[in-house]
Design goal:
This protein is an alpha+beta fold. Among the domains are: about 80 residues, RNA polymerase II/Efflux pump adaptor protein, barrel-sandwich hybrid domain (OB fold (Dihydrolipoamide Acetyltransferase, E2P)), CATH 2.40.50; about 210 residues, Chloramphenicol acetyltransferase-like domain (Chloramphenicol Acetyltransferase). It has eleven helices and 21 strands. The strands form six sheets. Strands 11, 14, 17, 18, 19, 20 and 21 form a seven-stranded mixed beta sheet that branches. A hairpin with a 2-residue loop joins strand 20 and strand 21. Belongs to the 2-oxoacid dehydrogenase family.
């Protein structure tokens, strides 16, 4: 009896998803526990596994289609898939022999619609440019036609034909009249906007629209932290197994500043301000599919080594697509570090419903006045974007100054932690 493949529970506040990529084709054998389809949600991508051995009998929802929790997206039937594959191989030559030459175009049209394996997005691209899929050589698994295959044929069609040559010499002919350049459409590439990118875009606009966002800036002299890291990083790593980076210092400084200014660690819920007395710090991580913000829980109770290890683990799992919804849920304050990409200054956007976000930037040597003398110091600009409905300007500036003081004096930071 066929087993239905259903969309599982997607987590808190997530009600629908997008079918990303089928890892198996119809008629192909599957094993229990084997991933068969990738599904994209607002926060993470995950794989749905087969519940039993058998054959992928049908695919009800194609790539790019929106599905809800509990929707049937395919079925698995009993069998091993070998019989279906053998039957296809036996029938294919007979069909080709029976097809009369005069009916070739119709045959190709039917094959493009039914016989050739291509995702809905690839079929749409072929239809848009008038490409017959029967003319496309599929390079994907099992002869599947990919987007690159269709785009390659489009590019070949747009190239002008080469002039004929005789006896190794190019034949001289009158120059042909100038032709119109190929349409700009042939030089464009259409890439599906992933579910995550759509959600990021929606939330950024929502944040700009729903919060009275303002940004204040300061600069931090990183000399003391860099000197401490230079002296202690090897022994720290040998003792703890963690690399001593900047993030643990700024996480610890942020927690201390949040304790001193509770309204920065809050959430506006209707007419009430929810002051949170726990410190779950979100750390922005860049991945191929966009920015994600996994959360370091109870950062106030963790040591420098524990924070460094957890941030490193979250970053690796984010880039490998192995984060869970629990890793991303919640967060009371966020830190983002554009400095790893070379950013000197920026205005980070709030992660709602949080009311503040700290932006770190590139460390750069600059001339500064110290005790009446000009000295070259490693300086970092820091930015605090905040919701002005909740946080006053004086409070935001004082919060950022507190972070500056703590990072510039790591011994005080250790005592605060």
């Amino acid at each position: 009896m066929p087993v239905e493949i259903r969309v599982p529970e997607l987590g808190e506040s997530v009600t629908d998803a997008t079918v990303g990529r089928w890892l198996k084709k119809e008629g192909e054998a599957v094993k229990s526990g084997e991933p068969i389809v990738e599904v994209e949600t607002d926060k993470i991508n995950f794989e749905i596994e087969a519940e039993q051995d058998g054959v992928l009998e049908s695919i009800a929802k194609g790539e790019g289609e929106t599905v809800g929790v509990g929707d049937v997206i395919g079925t698995i039937a009993e069998g091993d898939g070998r019989a279906a594959a053998a039957a296809e191989e036996e029938e294919e030559p007979e069909e080709r022999e029976e097809a009369p030459a005069a009916e070739a175009p119709a045959g190709r049209e039917e094959a493009a619609e039914e016989g050739f394996r291509a995702s809905p997005s690839v079929r749409r691209l072929a239809q848009e440019y008038g490409v017959d899929l029967a003319e496309v050589s599929g390079t994907g698994s099992g002869g599947r036609i990919t987007r690159e295959d269709v785009e390659r044929l489009i590019r070949e069609r747009s190239r002008p034909p080469a002039a004929p040559e005789e006896d190794g010499r190019r034949e001289e002919r009158p120059a042909p009249p100038p032709e119109r350049a190929p349409g700009r459409e042939a030089l464009e590439e259409r890439v599906r906007f992933s579910r995550r990118r759509q959600t990021i875009a929606q939330r950024l606009v929502e944040s700009q629209r729903n919060a009275a966002m303002l940004t204040t800036f300061n600069e931090v002299d990183m000399s003391a932290v860099m000197d401490l890291r230079r002296r202690r990083k090897e022994s720290f790593q040998e003792r703890t197994g963690a690399r001593l980076g900047f993030m643990s210092f700024f996480t610890k400084a942020s927690v201390a500043a949040l304790k001193a200014f509770p309204q920065v660690n809050a959430e506006l819920a209707g007419n009430e301000l929810v002051l949170k007395k726990y410190y779950d710090i979100g750390v922005a991580v860049s991945t191929d599919e966009g920015l994600v913000v996994p959360v370091v829980r109870d950062a106030d109770r963790k040591s420098f080594a524990e924070i460094e290890k957890e941030i490193a683990d979250l970053a690796v799992r984010a880039r490998e697509g192995r984060l869970t919804l629990e890793d991303l849920r919640g967060g009371t304050f966020t830190i983002t570090n554009g400095g790893v990409f070379g950013s000197l200054l920026s205005t980070p956007i709030l992660t709602l419903p949080q009311v503040a976000i700290l932006g770190m930037h590139k460390v750069q040597e600059r001339p500064v006045v110290v005790d009446g003398e000009i000295q070259v110091r490693p300086m970092m600009y820091v930015a605090l974007s905040y919701d002005h409905r909740v946080i006053d300007g004086a409070e935001a500036v004082s919060f950022l100054v507190r972070i500056k003081e703590l990072v510039e004096d790591p011994e005080t930071l250790l005592l605060e932690g």
